[in-house]
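Justification of computing resources. Each target in the renewal requires a structure prediction run like the one illustrated here; the chain below, 206 residues long, is used simply to show the kind of job we budget for.
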Amino acid sequence: MKRRIILSSGNEHKVKEIKRILKGQPFEILSKDEVGYKDFDVEEDGDTLEKNAFKKAYELSKLVKGIIIADDTGLFVDILNGEPGVYSARYAGENATYEDNNKLLLNKLKDVPLEKRNAIFKTVIVVILENGEKIEVCGECRGKIGFSLKGQNGFGYDPLFIVDGLDKTFAELSENEKNSISHRANALKNLKGKLEEIVDENNCYK
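Resulting structure tokens:
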């Protein structure tokens, strides 16, 4: 029996992306929705990505047996003193849409030249193992915020985030291209090594 990884997320885009990047690992990967906790939700009231990711992982670990993985992601724009940061998903309000958040960000950067629109996408992943042990990894991707939405792929701020060295937004990249360089991909690459270390010889629950 494979050890289970339970993703503490109901965001279908995020779950799909994580499953794709971790494909081939010797674990059964399931979302919280797939194990019967679709209504599970945690108030992300931490002042850092690390605190929010840990809270989401810890609270679900009380309910489900397996390896719990939770992440929190933020877009940090230098000239805005790190905004939207930990509030990225709700930048324009608690029920904000991706469009709302992008519009607000563009308004705040109005008249700011490209060379001053530097930003970092950062993902923090917290893992809680069956024995309660905690693992934390992070990944980053640097770029700039564009002046308009470009591309049809991805989600969130992807149409605005121009990746350094590519001159394309995340939304202009294919899934495979994005998943090879993104902040979440870099965090998951760091996680892969950690996961390999905890696999026992029978690939079963300890």
